Amino acid sequence: MRKVIEANPDVVVIIDEAYADFNEYTALPLVDEYENVVVVQTFSKSRSMAGMRIGYALGNEKLIKAMNDVRYSFNSYPMTRISVALGAAALEDEEYFRETTARIIETRERTKRELTRLGFSFGDSMTNFIFATHGRVPATLIFEQLRERHIFVRHFSNPRIENYLRISIGTDREMEIFLGALEEIIGSY
After folding, report:
1. CB 169 within 8 A of CB 111
2. Distance (Å, whole) CA 156 – CA 165
3. d(C-alpha 54, C-alpha 174), whole Å
4. Does residue 34 have a pLDDT over 90?
5. What is the rounded distance in angstroms from the CA atom of residue 155 to the CA atom of residue 131?
6. Are 171 and 100 in contact (CB under 8 A)?
7. What is the distance between the alpha carbons of residues 139 and 128, in angstroms, rounded to a whole number?
8. For residue 102, with 0-12 CB atoms within 10 Å meaning exposed, 13-18 middle and 19 or more buried, which class applies?
9. Which helix (H) or strand (E) holds 171?
């Protein structure tokens, strides 16, 4: 990231950390090192507030002022008083945030082990989802058979990723049901 930032000193470099709370890495220290860096985060993922359109940006005072000066002229997701209150409450409940994030990470790691055992391969996910492909069974077939069981994962038809599934991490029970169905599907192929 430093190479990108340093190669672009005359533009604002925005670093999206939507999934940063699910791993140990953050670009926040770069905000203090570089005047052209803004780090943005959302409450949609780790704070379980998808649809609320709550997030924040951290950067130097000049960049944040510029964002505030124009935000109402183009912001298609203005925040209501209720969403502001809910966002503030979410920030105050640090214990709940830490517990739920840790639970998602634990479930993700267990799911990764089980997917590996079932013959899937994937990058080392540090998010609340796993983007996986199976060595023998086409993603389309798995997707269709999961859907018939009312288990929903995402499948994309883009040629580069058409044999991958995007598997969101749910509760332990949801993931047990998902993995049981996968085992049946893979075993019958």
Report:
1. yes
2. 8
3. 26
4. yes
5. 10
6. no
7. 20
8. exposed
9. none
